[in-house]
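fyi for ur records
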Amino acid sequence: MQYIGEISALAASACWVITALVLASAGRVVGATVVNAVRIFIAICILCLIHWLVYGNIWPEISSFSLLCLAISGIIGLAIGDQFIYRALIDAGPRLTTLVMTCTPALTAIIAFVVLNENLSYVDLLGMLLTMAGIAIAILTRGEKNTNKKYPRVKVGIMFAFLGSLGQAIGLVFAKLGMKESDPNIVNTLYHSGVTPLSATYIRMCFGGVGATGLLLFYAFYKRAKRECHFRINFSVFICILAGAIFGPVLGVWLGLISIENMDTGVAATLMSLSPIMILPFAKIFEKEQITSSAVFGAFVSIIGVALLLLN
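which gave:
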């Protein structure tokens, strides 16, 4: 199917908009670490069921090399990287966090060039630069007049946001590297010449769950030591996390892997980073944010960049 990589990347970006809205609501109640761990556990259960229905087994047969790459991708990208991002949202706020996150496509392209030997055309580079510039313009001007909230650990939050961005970039590259390899003894055509995006998503999520469990245990011991370990997940919070898990770790990650399987990793990461642009109308409707002319201009610049990436 033509443009399947591009369509999947844009759909993944739309999924992350929904995820951001519902998980932000849950995170205000139970904290970033709990949300990160619970959403991954829910996603693992859903993916296990889907994998069994599609392939007839609950664990894919893949090579040791693929398993290692996908394990690294899951732990660094989903557990550690996302934890840094959720922490940055608290310490630096969503505007600065998402601004720093615009460097993810560039980091992805650099790592993909070194690890996967992927080269980008000049049109691809121009499209990426325009898209990231448009996102930066929109974020820098969005909602600044609508909040008086101060973030006391802005510098730490910015550092966490960059580490989260780096974690996501490493996760994407290692995911693509893992999907390229397969066990030569496997003759089932469902696996094609490598690991399918569904199997790769499932494996990444399982190892991301291992990392998230470690972080959750550390968080629980830390809170217990401070006598603050009293978080409770009520029904509404669970529904928010469930929706976030379906649209984020399941659909969002799955569509993202379909994208990087069918196009250059750096370009895919650029298209998947459009969430700050897509979220503008929702911010206007649900968060009552003022959408400035600069934000609209930034969205327009990003659309031009996306058009270059799609038409190239």
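Residues 197-225 form the longest helix (29 residues). thats all i got for now
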